[in-house]
Fold these 3 entries.
Entry 1:
Amino acid sequence: MPTTTTECDLLVIGTGAAGLTAAITAAKSGLEVLIVEGEAEYGGTTATSAGVIWIPCNHHSLKLSVTADKPDNMEEVRRYLAHEVSDWGNQSRLDAFLTAGPEMVRFLERETEVKFNAMEYPDYHADAPGGHTMRSLIAVTYQASKLGPALPQLRSQLPQTLFLGLAIGSTLEMKAFMNAGRSFKSLGIVLRKLAGHFRDLLIYRRSKHLVRGCALIGRLMRSVLDLGIPCWLSSPATGLIVSDGRVTGVHVQTGEGPVEIHAARGVVLACGGYARDEARRLATYPYHAAGAFHASTTSLGNRGDGVRMGEQAGGAFDVKVSQVGIWMPVSVIPDRKGPNGVWPHLVDRQKPGFIAVTSNGKRFTNESASYHEFVPDLVRACEAGKETYCWLIGDSRAVRHWGIGVVRPWPVPSRRHLRSGYLKRADSLAELAHICSIDRGGLAATVTRFNRFAGTGVDEDFGRGSLIYDRYQGDDEVSPNPCLGKLEKGPFFAVKVLAGEIGTYAGLTTDEHSRVLAANGSPVPGLYAAGNDQASVFGGAYPGAGATIGPGMVFAYLAGRHAAASSSQADD
Ligand SMILES: Cc1cc2nc3c(=O)[nH]c(=O)nc-3n(C[C@H](O)[C@H](O)[C@H](O)COP(=O)(O)OP(=O)(O)OC[C@H]3O[C@@H](n4cnc5c(N)ncnc54)[C@H](O)[C@@H]3O)c2cc1C
C-alpha cells in the first residue's frame, strides 16, 4: 500500500497515563497533537493498575496532613528522597519532579476531567527520615458512560483481580470483601456492592463505574476527546523520522497502510518501557539471564519500542539504576495467557498466618515489606539454586480469611485451583513439605520459631510488623503484632511464588524537561520520553504507592510544556 503523509505539531506514542498527560498538556498550550497507540485498546498497563500516584505535597495530601495534625512539607520530602534515592538519582530531575508534581495535579484538576482523592497510604519506608503517610493520590471513580462510544476500547482491569467481574474500588471495599466471611457488616457491604454490579451488568452490560487505573485513564481519555485530539488505535509506531539530527516525525503502520506523520515540535515516546522485550529483559535482569523464570503483569504492548526507537535516534539507554525492574512477587495461574495469567501478590503475604520459605524451608525476608524489596531478597536467597521461587504458606484460618493468590477467601470454592495444581493442600506441614519438595525439618523448625514470634509479637529474624508500612498491610484486629499470626490449624496451603514485575525502571536517559539525551549528555532534538520509557527519576527506588505513574505523569506534563514552548527549528 502507498505511504500517506500527515502533519501535526506534537506526536505522542502510547495511551498510558504518560502519553495521555503529555498530549493533554501540549494541546492545552495550543499545539496540534496526534496520539498513536499500537494496540486495539487504549490505556496500556496504567488501565490495569491500581491508579495510585505518588506526588508529595500536592494540595489534597497537604490538606489531609494538616487535618490529621501531621503537616507535611517539601523539606521533609527532600530528606526522605535523599534516604531513598541515595547516590542513584539526578538532582535536577528530582527537583523538577518535586516542583512540577503539585502543579500538574492542579493543572489537570482545573483544566480537565481528571480528579483525585487523597489517600492515607504510608510511604514504603515511612519510618525513615522524612517519611510520611499522606503523599499518594487516587483517581476519583468515573462514570463509564461519560466515555460514550470510546468506552468499549478502554482496556479493562486484569480479569483475575476482579470478583465476578467487579473491580474493587478502595481499600475499605477490599477489607469488606476480605471480612465478608466473618462480619455481618462486611457481608452487607459486599452484597449491596454485588447487587449494584449485577444490576449494571443487566442494564449496561458492564460496570457503570470505572475505578482505579480505569478511572484514571477514563478521565484522561475524556479530556483528550474534549480537546479534539485524534487518537489512532491499532496503529503502532514503527520508527522515527530523523532529518539533520532532529526527530521530525514517525512512521506508523495503520489498518489503511503505512503513514508518515510529520511533527514540527517533535515526538513523545510513552510506550510503557520494555517489560515485553525478551532480549532486553535478558540483557538487564541478571537472575533471568541466569535461567530463572520471570513473569510480567504488564500490557503485551510494552514491547520496548520506545526505548529502541530512542536509541536509534541517538538516545542513551540508562541501566545505572539500583533496580532495573519494578519488582512484584507473582504466581502463575495455569491455562491463562499473558498478564491475565499472572497474579500480583499485593495483599496476602503481609497478613497474619502466612510465611514465605524457599526450598530449604527457611524464611528469607520480611514478608510484609514492599513488593519492590521482596523480589530482590528472593533472588538473593535463591542465588545458589537453578530456579528463583519460594512458597507462600498459610494455615487454614489465614487462607479462609484472606485467600491466597488468586484463591478467594471463604466461602468462594477453591477446588478448581487444587485441581489445576495452582494451590497445594495438606493436612500437616510435613505432608505439605513433601508435596512442595520443601525440606521437611527446615519447614518444621521455621514454623515453630515463627509461631513463637507470633506469640511475643516480635519477629527476631526480619522485624516483620515493626514498621509503619508493614502494619498498614497487616490486620489491625490481630495483636500483639498485626502482621504475625501462628500457623497452627490445618489443613495447610501453599502457592508457588516467583519473581515478576509490573514495569521497567531502566530506560532512556532524559533531562528535567523529559528531553531524551545522547550518551554525551546533549538532547536529541525533537525527542521526548515519558513514563517507563525514561529511566526512573528515583534511580530505581520505590519511595511510595504510585511511584511510577506519578513521575510518569509529571514528566509527561513537563514534556508537553517544553514542546509547546520550543520552536520547531531550535536545537532544543
Ligand atoms: C496490577 C498492577 C497495579 C499497578 N498499580 C500501580 C499503581 O497504583 N501506581 C503506580 O505508580 N504504578 C502501578 N503499576 C505500574 C504502572 O501501571 C506502570 O508502571 C505504568 O502504568 C506505566 O505507564 P506508562 O504510561 O509508561 O505505560 P503504559 O500505561 O503501559 O502505556 C504504554 C502504551 O504504549 C503503547 N505502545 C507501546 N509501543 C507502541 C508503539 N510502537 N506504537 C504505539 N503505541 C505503543 C502500549 O500499547 C501501551 O498502551 C501497577 C501495575 C500493575 C500491573
Note: The chain has a mean pLDDT of 93.
Entry 2:
Amino acid sequence: MRAAGCVFAENEAELLIAAAPTASDLARLVDQRIAGLPLERVLGWAEFCGIRIAIDPGVFVPRRRSEFLVHQAAVVTQPGAVVVDMCCGSGAIGAALAAVRSIDLYAVDIDPAAVACARRNIHDHVYQGNLFGPLPGTLQGRVDVLVVNAPYVPTDEIAFMPPEARLYEAQVALDGGADGLNIQRRVVASAPLWLAPTGTLLIETSGRQAAHTADMISHAGLKPNVLSSDELDATVVTGIR
Ligand SMILES: C[S@@+](CC[C@H](N)C(=O)[O-])C[C@H]1O[C@@H](n2cnc3c(N)ncnc32)[C@H](O)[C@@H]1O
C-alpha cells in the first residue's frame, strides 16, 4: 500500500485487516484502496468527532475540519434544542452533535443517496429536498441551532480538488456555483424565517470566503461573528439576531 502511494499505509492496513472477515476479503479491500478508492469508501465508514459515520457511494466524506463546526454548535446547544443540519450529506454533523447533546434533530439534503446514508446515521427527521423546502412549516421561528456545511467550492476550482473528492463525491456535494457561495446565500437569506428568537446560525466556510459569508449574514439582518481554528484549518461564521 505504501508503494501505491498510501501515506498512512500502516494505519490504513490495520483498519482494512479489522474490516475483512477473510483473507480474500482483505485482498479485495487492499486492491480497491490501491486502485485509488478513498479509504472511507473501502471501509464504508468514516471516523468523525470520535464516532463512526456510515458512508455510502457518492456521499460526501465528512472532513476533519468540520469537527470545528460541531464544537462551535455544541457551545450554543442547550438540552432539548431544535437543531437543523442543513445540507446534511451523511448526517455526520447532526449525528456528532446528537452524540454530545440531547437534541431534537432535523436534517435535509437534496441528494437521495445522501438522504439514504443520513438515515443510517440519524434515526429521525431526515428529509429529502431543496434546502428548507421539505422541512415542516411548524419549525419556522423555532430552530435553535441551524448548522450548515453546504457546498462552497467555486465551480472552476473543483477540477483542482484531490481525486478522492473530484472522482468519488457527487458534484452537487462540492459545487457552490461561480463564487462558491450560491447555496450559502440561499440558506442565509431564509435563515431568519426559521431561527428562534435566540437561535444561532453556524456556517462552515473557507478563510478566504469568510468575509463574504459574514456580509451575507449581516444583509439578512443577523449579527455575524467569524471563528477560526488554525489546528483544524477551519472557519465558521455564526449569526444571531
Ligand atoms: C459539502 S457536502 C457536506 C455534507 C455534510 N454537511 C458534511 O459536512 O459531511 C454538501 C451537501 O449539500 C447537499 N446539497 C447541495 N445542494 C443542496 C440543496 N439545494 N438542498 C439541500 N442539500 C443540498 C449535497 O447533496 C451534499 O450532501
Note: The chain has a mean pLDDT of 96.
Entry 3:
Amino acid sequence: MSDFQFTGKFAREAKRNIKKYPKGKSQSAVLALLFLAQEQNHDEGHYVTEAAMAEIANILDMPLIRIVEVASFFTMINLKPVGKFHIQLCGTTPCMLRGAKELRKRCEDYLNIKNGETDENKLFTLTEVECLGACCNAPMVQINDDYYEDLTPDSLQEILENLGDGKAVKSGSQIGRSCSEPSRGGKI
Ligand code: FES
C-alpha cells in the first residue's frame, strides 16, 4: 500500500473523474488525478510526491513510468515543492517580444533566485513556462491561480512586493483594460 491516499473531497473528485470515462479507459483520468494529488498536498509544498504517483499508478492500473511521463511533461504539475507564491512566467514569442525577458530579469534580481528556484523564505518560486493563453495581454505571468497581464518590470515588482507583505493585489490587466480590449480606448 502506498504512503499516499486520496482523502475527503479529493477522493470523491478522483472517483468522479474516473467515472467520466468508459470501462477500460480510466487511464484517461491520469492528469486529473495528478492535479488532485497536487491540490491535496497544497499546504505541504503543492507538488506531486512519488508516493502519490505510485498510488495513481495503482488506482489506474498503469506502470509508474507512464505516470511520471505525464507528470513531467506538463508544467502545471510540480515535481518538487514550490513557494507560497508560484510565479509562472510566460516566455513564449508574443510575451518575449513584449518584454518577458525583462520581467524574468527583474524577478531574478528582486527575489535573488534563478529560474526554477525558490527564495530562501519559501515565499516565491519562479518557473518560466510556455504560452498561458493570454497573449493579447502580453507580457504576463500566472501567480498561483491568477493571471497578471500587461506587465512592466516595475508593475511586476510592485505585485511581488505586495504579495510578500501580505497586501491585496489586483489580478488581470495592470493598465486597466477590460479583458483583451484595445489598449487605446477602443480604437484599433
Ligand atoms: S505567449 Fe505569453 S500568454 Fe501566450
Note: The pocket of FE2/S2 (inorganic) cluster is lined by residues 90, 92, 94-95, 131-135, 138, 140 (CB under 6 Å).
